[in-house]
Each structure stands twice: as structure tokens, then as C-alpha cells.
Write a structure and sequence with these properties.
The protein is of the alpha/beta class. It has helices at about 15-25, 50-55, 70-75, 100-115, 125-130, 140-150, 170-195, 200-210, 215-225, 235-255, 260-275, 280-295; strands at about 5-10, 25-30, 45-50, 60-65, 90-95, 115-120, 120-125, 135-140, 155-160. Helices cover about 50% and strands about 15% of the residues. The chain has twelve helices and nine strands.
């Protein structure tokens, strides 16, 4: 089947991405730990797989959307991993936020196997994934990127190439998530300051989002923070904390002082310690700031 590809990971983002590929005419060999999620798709367009190896069998391209390095590594090189069955010259597109070190390791293992691995993490919440509005970063082997691009065009509004070093896009993703997290902290503190001084935090957020901070991050996240709207959960605090750890680790390895990254890390560490790990990272930050201020 010409349009058959593998897909692993149906979380809040992956389920919308997979659905958009089905709408684009692809047949997916899907593996997900919770098999019930696969049953939500048109069954004529999917093959339910019991293992990552089964999802990788006979496909020219496989997409993984797995949020933890350890899970991605096990799904790739484990006893029932992708590399057990992945064809020669097939391309593994890894689209989640992982450590640059893990990307380099997996690219090397794929090369030894005779297949290819590229990094392609995305920016956008689940609603952006559903609307095909993701910003897609990409890095790695030039030929593999050319093969992957027609598939990725069905998932986002723009693809940005960060070069041949496979971990390049992962560095961009870690840096970008740090910037978002720092922005959440800044907005939460500013709106709470306004609230404690008798102002309507929603009005303040709307003012900034339409004037000097007229950008999607400040408009969309600003609205959630100002309204204390923490559901539905788009991105868990535990995953935000994982990404903050990646930023701090990368800063230490490259001897890059990042005091704000430490602050952001500790804010989400506090959220996880309080039992908010499964809550949205907007809540993890904004609720923490509000509680600190007694409001």
C-alpha cells in the first residue's frame, strides 16, 4: 500500500495528528499503549498493532509522538521495538520533545540498522494539532527530510529546517518551551499584581495582548491565565517539568547561565510536588503564583 505509514503514540497531540493523516488519505499502522484510542478512528484506515515492531513492519515512514525519552528509546530498540522490523532506508520521524542527546543516540542506532531518523518536534497545543496549525521544526539527514516533508505538510502550517545535525530541532524545541514557560510565569505574576491592586486581571490581560504584547503566546495563554481557566488539560505540568529539566540540563552541559530557567524549573517542580502533575502547566504556574500571593 503506497500511502501506508506507521504511527506510535496517541496522546493529546498524537491523536489529532494521526486523524489528519487519515483524512489526507494515509493508512496507518498504529500502536498505542491504550488500544481503545485506535478504535476511535475509521477502522478501514488503520491497522491495530500490538507492538511498535508491528507498527514499523513494511512501512517507508514511521511517526512517533512519545513524550518521554525512555519510552521512545524502548519503543525503538527494545525487544519489540521499531528496529526489529523497520525496513532499510525507511524514515523514523520523531515529533515529541526529547533530549538532544537521545536524538543523536537514536539517529546513530538507525544508521547502524540501515534506516534513517530525523527530529521533527512541534509547537502548538492540541487545538492547533487538530486544525493543522502546528509549527514543525525539522533537522537531520537531507534525503530523509525530503521524504518526510510531504507527510508533515498534512500536520502543520509551516515546516522550519534547522540543518543536518539531527538534534538541532530538539535544541530549538527545548529553548522554545523554556520561553513559553518563562512567559507563563511573567504573565501570572503581572496579572496577579494587577489583581492584588484592585484591577480586573482579565482586562489587564486583554490590554497587553492587544498592544505591546500582541502575540499568540500572550493572547492565548494570557486569556487562560487571566480567567484562571485550567481545563481542558492541553499539556500536563509533569511534562512541562520534564521539559524544564531538559532546558536546565542543556544549559549546564553547554555552560550557559540561565537563571530564569532555574526559576521556571522550580515553579513546575513545586506544582508536581503539590500533586498537580496531571493538571495543565498553565495551572501549575498560574495557580502557584496566585497561591503565593494569597489570592
Amino acid at each position: 500500500m503506497k500511502n501506508k505509514i506507521g504511527f506510535i503514540g496517541l496522546g493529546n497531540m498524537g491523536i489529532h495528528m494521526a486523524n489528519n493523516l487519515i483524512k489526507a488519505g494515509y493508512h496507518l499502522q498504529v500502536y498505542n499503549r491504550t488500544e481503545a484510542k485506535i478504535l476511535e478512528f475509521d477502522q478501514a484506515s488503520v491497522t491495530v498493532c500490538k507492538t511498535p515492531a508491528e507498527a514499523a513492519t513494511g512501512v517507508p515512514i514511521l511517526i512517533s509522538m512519545l513524550s518521554q525519552d525512555e519510552v521512545l528509546r524502548e519503543s525503538t530498540v527494545g525487544a519489540e521495538g521499531i528496529l526489529k522490523t523497520f525496513p532499510a532506508n525507511a524514515v523514523h520521524i520523531s515529533m515529541s520533545t526529547i533530549s538532544p542527546d537521545t536524538a543523536e543516540e537514536l539517529a546513530k542506532l538507525h544508521k547502524e540498522h540501515g534506516s534513517k531518523y530525523i527530529a521533527s518536534p512541534v509547537f502548538g497545543r492540541p487545538e492547533a494539532a487538530e486544525a493543522k496549525k502546528l509549527f514543525i521544526c525539522i533537522s537531520g539527514d537531507k534525503d530523509a527530510k525530503e521524504i518526510a516533508t510531504p507527510v508533515l505538510e498534512n500536520l502543520g502550517q509551516r515546516i522550519i529546517d534547522f540543518g543536518d545535525k539531527v538534534s538541532g530541532a530538539n535544541v530549538v524545541k527545548v529553548a522554545g518551551n523554556f520561553m513559553i514557560l518563562a512567559s507563563l510565569e511573567i504573565m501570572a505574576e503581572a496579572f496577579t499584581l494587577a489583581e492584588k491592586n484592585g484591577l480586573d486581571r482579565v482586562q489587564v490581560a486583554e490590554f497587553f495582548g492587544s498592544t505591546i504584547f500582541n502575540a499568540p503566546i500572550y493572547q492565548n495563554y494570557g486569556r487562560l491565565i487571566a480567567n484562571k481557566q485550567y481545563e481542558p488539560v492541553g499539556f500536563k505540568s509533569s511534562l512541562g517539568y520534564k521539559d524544564a529539566r531538559l532546558a536546565v540540563k542543556l544549559a549546564q552541559l553547554s555552560q550557559t547561565p540561565m537563571p530564569a530557567a532555574t526559576l521556571a524549573h522550580d515553579r513546575l517542580l513545586s506544582a508536581v510536588a503539590k500533586g498537580w502533575g496531571d493538571r495543565d502547566w498553565v495551572e501549575g504556574v498560574a495557580r502557584g503564583v496566585s497561591e503565593d500571593a494569597g489570592v
